[in-house]
Amino acid sequence: MAIVLGDGPATATLVRLARIGLGGPQVDGWWFPHRRYHGIGANPTGSGTRTHHSRGRQKFSWIHIDDVVKAVKFIVENDALDGPVNLSAPRISDNRTLMATLRRRVGAAVGLPAFRWMLEPAMLILRTEPELVLKSRWVTPERLLQAGYTFTWPDLGPAINDVVKR
């Protein structure tokens, strides 16, 4: 499941950051070498020490809370769907576009970027990983679309407008 846009803590935090002028992109860059990120699976890629200098263009897969509920119901009622099904909106964004859309919606003229050297200590305090915002998450709902599911919120702009309004 992609990041859910709705009334949860992730959306509330992003909206709050945008409102106070800290809603710029999250940008990868230099940080002390470490081996925390080894990848997933039997043959993970990367050494875990390389940075990618994303400049905020890392992919951001998302889904509106209304589509989560509706898609789960669709999957349960559809016998042809079995096994893993990706829950994400069909139109992927990137981090820079996400943050710009949020800023426009809340009326913030400026959004200062957050660089890895800022995120690493902050995320340590919050007990989470900066990779959650620095790495691309590129998931498409191919099987869901092939089964005939129609998204209520396929586009990021209207979805952001709806969740901020709520």
From TrEMBL:
It comes from Cryobacterium glaciale. InterPro entries: DUF1731 (IPR013549), NAD(P)-bd_dom_sf (IPR036291). PANTHER family: EPIMERASE FAMILY PROTEIN SDR39U1, SUGAR NUCLEOTIDE EPIMERASE RELATED. Residues 122-162 form the DUF1731 domain. This is DUF1731 domain-containing protein. Gene3D superfamilies: NAD(P)-binding Rossmann-like Domain (3.40.50.720). It comes from the Bacteria. Signal peptide: none annotated.
